[in-house]
C-alpha cells in the first residue's frame, strides 16, 4: 500500500502558506498539459509563483493536450540537464520509456494532479487529490439531495484515458450503487472544456425529451458544468432547479453560478500542487529524503450554503 500525506486544501488553495525555503537555485522543467480549464490556468500560474518565490528557474512547456508533446518536452529537459521535472500527465498510460530515460539520467520526476499506470520507481512522488473520492463526494451529495425520487443523471466525463476521468466516474458510480432510483442515462466525454461541455449537453438534452427526462448533471469538472449550464438555459430550462448540477474543481465561476441558483455543489481541487512538490524535491535533492509516494491534497464539498459570493471574491484573483 502507498504511503500518504494529506494536505489541508483550503490553506493550500490560498497558495501562500507553504514554506518559502530556497531550493538552492534548482532548475525544474514543467511539462503542463495545456489550458483546457480554469483550474489548469490556476495551476500554471500558482506553479510559476511558487517557483519564483523559491528562486527556482522554471522551464515551462505547454503540451497543447498532446502526450507526444509532453514526451518531447521531457526529453528536452533531460538533454538540458535540469535538476528535476514536474509532469502533469494528460493520460494515465504510455509513460514508462520516457520516465526510464529520466531515471537513467538521475533526474527525479514529480507527477502533478494526475496519476499514471507505471511502476512506482519511475517517479519520486505524485501530488494529487484522491480522484475516486472526489467522484464519491459528488455522488453522495446527489444521493442525499434526491432522496427516494427517481433521478436520471447525465455525465460529462473528462479527457478520455486521463486518471481524473477514470476515477471520478468510478467514485460517482460507487456512491450511487444500491440506489436504484438514480441512474446514469447518458455519459460522454466533454474533454474538460466549456465548449465541449456545452456541445455534449446540447446533445443530451435533445436525446432526453428536450431535457425533461434529465434530473441531474454530473460533470467531471466545473468548466464543462458552466458550458452545460448555458446549454440548459438555451433549452428553456432552469439549471440548478430543473436540472441539478454537481461538478468538481471549485473554480470562481461555479461559485457565481451557485450564487445565481444555477449550480448545486462542487468538490474543491487545490491548484497548488507545486508547493508540496517543490518541498519534496528540496528535501530529496538536499538530503536524499524520500517523500511518501503519494502526497494527497484535500477534497472539500461546497454548496450554496457556503457563501458562494464570498468564496468567489477570495478565489477570483488566484489565476483561474
Ligand atoms: O487533473 C485535474 C483536472 O484537469 C481538473 O479537474 C480539470 O479541470 C483539469 O482539466
UniProtKB/TrEMBL annotation:
It comes from the Bacteria. The keyword Signal applies. This is Monosaccharide ABC transporter substrate-binding protein, CUT2 family. Residues 1-25 form the signal peptide. Pfam families: Peripla_BP_4. Residues 29-289 form the Periplasmic binding protein domain. One of its GO terms (cellular component) is cell envelope. It is found in: Cell envelope. Its main location: other. It comes from Consotaella salsifontis. One of its GO terms (molecular function) is carbohydrate binding. Belongs to the bacterial solute-binding protein 2 family. Keywords: Signal.
Amino acid at each position: 500500500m502507498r504511503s500518504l500525506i494529506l494536505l489541508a486544501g483550503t490553506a493550500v488553495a490560498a497558495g501562500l502558506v507553504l514554506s518559502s525555503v530556497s531550493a538552492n537555485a534548482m532548475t525544474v522543467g514543467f511539462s503542463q498539459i495545456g489550458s483546457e480549464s480554469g483550474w489548469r490556468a490556476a495551476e500554471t500560474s500558482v506553479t510559476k509563483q511558487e517557483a519564483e518565490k523559491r528562486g527556482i528557474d522554471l522551464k515551462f512547456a505547454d503540451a497543447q493536450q498532446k502526450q507526444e508533446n509532453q514526451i518531447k518536452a521531457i526529453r528536452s529537459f533531460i538533454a538540458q540537464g535540469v535538476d528535476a521535472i514536474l509532469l502533469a500527465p494528460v493520460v494515465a498510460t504510455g509513460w514508462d520509456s520516457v520516465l526510464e530515460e529520466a531515471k537513467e539520467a538521475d533526474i527525479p520526476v514529480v507527477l502533478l494532479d494526475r496519476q499514471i499506470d507505471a511502476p512506482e520507481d519511475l517517479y519520486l512522488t505524485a501530488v494529487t487529490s484522491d480522484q475516486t473520492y472526489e467522484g464519491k463526494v459528488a455522488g453522495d451529495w446527489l444521493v442525499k439531495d434526491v432522496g427516494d425520487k427517481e433521478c436520471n443523471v447525465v455525465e460529462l466525463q473528462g479527457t478520455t484515458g486521463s486518471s481524473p476521468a477514470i476515477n471520478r466516474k468510478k467514485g460517482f458510480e460507487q456512491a450511487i450503487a444500491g440506489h436504484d432510483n438514480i441512474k446514469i442515462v447518458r455519459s460522454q466525454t466533454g474533454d474538460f472544456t466549456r465548449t465541449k461541455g456545452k456541445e455534449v449537453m446540447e446533445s443530451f438534452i435533445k436525446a432526453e425529451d428536450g431535457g425533461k427526462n434529465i434530473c441531474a448533471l454530473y460533470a467531471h469538472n466545473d468548466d464543462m458544468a458552466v458550458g452545460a449550464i448555458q446549454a440548459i438555459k438555451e433549452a428553456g430550462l432552469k439549471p440548478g432547479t430543473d436540472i441539478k448540477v454537481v461538478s468538481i474543481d471549485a473554480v470562481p465561476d461555479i461559485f457565481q453560478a451557485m450564487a445565481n441558483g444555477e449550480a448545486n455543489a462542487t468538490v474543491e481541487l487545490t491548484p497548488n500542487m507545486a508547493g508540496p512538490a517543490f518541498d519534496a524535491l528540496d528535501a530529496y535533492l538536499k538530503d536524499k529524503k524520500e517523500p511518501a509516494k503519494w502526497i494527497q491534497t484535500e477534497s472539500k464539498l461546497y454548496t450554496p450554503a457556503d457563501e458562494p459570493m464570498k468564496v468567489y471574491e477570495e478565489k477570483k484573483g488566484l489565476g483561474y
